[in-house]
Design a protein that fits this description.
The chain is about 70% helix and about 0% strand. The protein is mostly helical. It has a single domain, classed as Leucine-rich Repeat Variant (Alpha Horseshoe). Helix 1 packs across helix 4.
Length: about 130
Amino acid sequence: MTLPELKTMIADYMENGFLENIIDMFKHDRTLYPLIGELMTDERVRVRLGMSALMETLKEEDPENIYSALPNILPLLKHNEPVIRGDAAYLLGIIGHEESIPLLEKTANNDTNKEVRLIAKEAVEDIKNR
């Protein structure tokens, strides 16, 4: 299966509520983590919400590999859509890697959207309080 086909399959599974299956896939194939950034831009709300639930679970169940999602999530802080920027900030807070603090602080201070600024600020606080 090609990477685009795999991304489509994961998104479709997520939309249909098969979170447990996706969690197992990520735990058994660490190469899937870079897809999280792409999946966060899916037009389907259920897919984006599912990505948050996925990351919350993987933070607990697969913490040693969760950081590999960072390079594909960090650029989303500059996405055109405020919803995507806010979701990215939220995921970075879940992941909790200190490397993301400078970009989150920049977002918290400069984003044009009030909600995105708030989510980024909360993500920074979460990371610093760990």
